[in-house]
Amino acid sequence: MTTTLTALMAATHLAFAVLSGATAQAAAWTWTLYEGEGPVVLANEVPDTPQLKATLECTPGSGVARVSVYGGPLAAGIATVTSQGGSAQAQTEAQTGRGGKLSLALRTDHPVFGQFVASGDLTIAVGDQHQDVEIEAAHLAKLRRFADLCSG
Length: 152
Description:
The protein has a 9-stranded antiparallel beta sheet with strand order 1-2-3-4-7-6-5-8-9. The chain starts with a helix and ends with a helix. The chain has a single domain (30-150), classed as Invasion associated locus B (IalB) protein (Immunoglobulin-like, Sandwich), CATH 2.60.40.1880. Helices cover 30% and strands 40% of the residues. With 152 residues, the protein is an alpha+beta fold.
């Protein structure tokens, strides 16, 4: 009985440790805005690591944002980009890069980009596969700042 109870307690402690680690790792992801010399970048990252889920990048005043997603199921091809459940839609060419990166260009004056800035939700689909970019409400001010800096 004592051995069973000890094993059960050890398993419980291990489960809590695993769950705590997973929660801490999930909480480490954030949106960070980089501005100054060079391009403006809004990155969904774990700070001070090479881990990325998505980046938005532009040359200030260019009117074009390059949206990149990482580690998803998407392949190169014609991408359909939507925001807010499809209320705005665009088609553009998506290109793949190293490390599972898929990138596309989107004009900052396009209705899809405007809906994205308002909602924080963007869906990229190539064929039957799709990947979402979600910016939580707490980070929407960074997205608006990015859009302001990039607009031509």
